[in-house]
Amino acid sequence: MTAADRCRAMKSGTVIVLLALAACIVGCTGTPDTVRVGEKENGTTVSVGEGGRVIVALPYDTVEKYEWRTDMSDGLVVTDEKTAAGTQEWTVEPLGPGTYTFRALWVRVGAPDAAAEKTFTLTIRAV
Fold first, then answer.
1. Is pTM beyond 0.85 here?
2. What's the maximum distance between 2 C-alpha atoms anywhere in the chain?
3. In which order are the strands placed within the sheet that holds 53-59?
4. Do 16 and 44 sit in the same domain of this protein?
5. Residue 114: what pLDDT?
6. What is the span of the domain harbouring residue 104?
7. Which positions of the chain have pLDDT values less than 70?
């Protein structure tokens, strides 16, 4: 093998390694597909990968005459909503990359949103 052949082989190997590394960097964002949050995460920011979702679970008492009302940024959609003993849960998904806000208001049934006794706010960063 000549010096020129060795040089070509080394360049080919280097190109393959660089392509593999680039594919890993592009495909491995390090952000989870699903993030589950609760009342403790009020006021925080979470990140999800493209096509990811966030499950928000908040305490819910069916005996009291209160309800959670949601308010979200455009581009953030609720794909599932469940109410079980003690918990109300929403699965939300961003429609594309960006920063979104999910907000839930704890309000007496029939009262205006302005009368909310507590507010849960979560910033969702979709990358």
1. no
2. 85
3. 34-37, 53-59, 87-94, 76-84
4. no
5. 96
6. 31-126
7. 1, 3-30
